[in-house]
Design a protein that fits this description.
alpha+beta; OB fold (Dihydrolipoamide Acetyltransferase, E2P); Chloramphenicol Acetyltransferase; 3 domains
Length: 415
């Protein structure tokens, strides 16, 4: 029996996915578990495995196409078998991501399709972005199936509207503009941006322009943190086969503080504060030409050794571009650590719909006051970015203080 290859649902609110590439060609034999296609969502580019054995055929989507979740885009066939015709993806075959895709496909017929004021279809996410960025959807032509207005259409329109006044001021005529004194004219072709890089640019722009950020900072004495890590390295390496890092201890400290401060672990959604039941701390990881956030699930409940093991496995998959949907979804808070790049301190942009992100600087010996005397201690700077709709300054300060207290007694993080 033919197996349908459908556009999978990789995120809770996902309505469409962009087909980045096929890993197999039409007519090629595919084995269950082999990488079959790459799909781009709002968060990352994810490789999708084949759900069964068969010959790839009946391909209806090409690279670059934006396809509704649950729609069949190809079939895995037996030798001599022909692709079924006019069969809904929700009624036949096995889906690439069965649970989310099935839920999306089952819910789709019952929900009326949103329509813009101009009569065009528009996704709920696109409508929300249009409202946040002041975009008139009646003036847009959607790039989705049947002219549907998508989130990327809204962001392009918002970017164009922002750029237009500046462009008009800087260039009142079509004559070329000479570079200002001391500036160099652009040379060579523009640098291409990867799919992940473009997603990161769009999401950070959306966050920075729509989320009311504020920042609180603490300098932390890292003496106990260094001593505890050195003591734990051989122990964790023996029990879990991985060397524990400062990041692992930070994840443990942050996760336990999030448990004490549910607002900081919450989200802003539909003009309300949603409190997340699980504590899933994500780590910002640099990959080629971009940054991805990989999630350590139930970070408040697992051991330090398990945190270290998950962190290492996620980093290896990220570098190999083999992150799976479960690796990048469901985060409730993010840590961005640039200490390994000798950065003293920085501020980070929140990853929606999370309420906060912690920026971590390098541990370095600094002159500080110790019991009223001048001394030298290893310290690091922590900067917390918070969504002011979810937490106020006092709540953010209390959360950060609990993180600092946990790092001052890191032995308590080991269990």
């Amino acid at each position: 029996m033919a197996i349908s290859v459908v556009m999978p649902a990789l995120e809770m609110a996902q309505e469409t996915g962009k087909l980045v590439s096929w890993k197999k060609k039409a007519g090629e034999q595919v084995k269950k578990g082999e990488m079959l296609l790459e799909v781009e969502t709002d968060k990352a580019v994810v490789e999708i495995e084949a759900a069964g054995d068969g010959i790839l055929g009946g391909v209806t989507a090409k690279e670059g196409d934006v396809v509704p979740v649950g729609q069949t885009i190809a079939w895995l066939l037996k030798p001599g078998e022909q692709p079924p015709s006019n069969v809904a993806a929700s009624q036949t075959g096995r889906k690439m991501d069965s649970a989310p895709a099935a839920a999306a496909a089952a819910a789709a017929p019952a929900a009326p399709e949103p329509v813009s004021a101009a009569g065009a279809k528009i996704s709920p996410k696109a409508r929300r972005l249009a409202r946040e960025h002041g975009v008139d959807i009646a003036t847009l032509r959607g790039s989705g199936p049947g002219g549907e207005i998508l989130a990327e259409d809204i962001m392009k329109s918002a970017s164009a509207a922002t750029a237009s006044p500046a462009a008009a001021t800087a260039r009142p005529t079509s004559a070329p503009v000479a570079p200002s004194s001391g500036a160099q004219a652009p040379s060579g072709p523009p640098e291409a941006v990867s799919s992940i890089g473009r997603i990161m640019a769009e999401r950070t722009t959306q966050s920075w322009t729509s989320v009311p950020h504020f920042f609180v900072t603490r300098e932390v004495d890292a003496s106990a943190l260094n001593v505890t890590r050195e003591r734990l390295i051989p122990i964790i390496e023996k029990s879990h086969g991985v060397k524990v890092t400062h990041t692992d201890l930070l994840v443990a400290a942050v996760a336990r503080a999030l448990r004490l401060h549910p607002r900081m672990n919450g989200s802003w959604a539909n003009d309300k504060i949603a409190l997340n039941g699980d504590v899933n701390v994500a780590l910002a990881m640099a990959v080629e030409n971009a940054v991805v956030t990989a999630v350590i699930r139930n970070s408040d409940k697992i051991s330090l050794g398990d945190i270290a093991k998950q962190r290492k496995e996620l980093a290896e998959r990220a570098r190999a571009n083999r992150l799976q949907p479960a690796d990048i979804t469901g985060a409730t808070f993010t840590i961005s650590n640039l200490g390994m790049f000798s950065v003293d301190a920085f501020t980070a942009i929140i990853v929606p719909p999370q309420a906060g992100i912690l920026a971590v600087g390098a541990i370095a010996d600094r002159v500080v006051a110790v019991n009223g005397m001048i001394g030298v201690r290893p310290t690091l700077n922590l900067t917390l970015s918070s969504d002011h709709r979810v937490v106020d300054g006092a709540r953010a300060a209390q959360f950060l203080n609990d993180v600092v207290l946990a790092l001052a007694e890191p032995e308590k993080l080991v269990r």
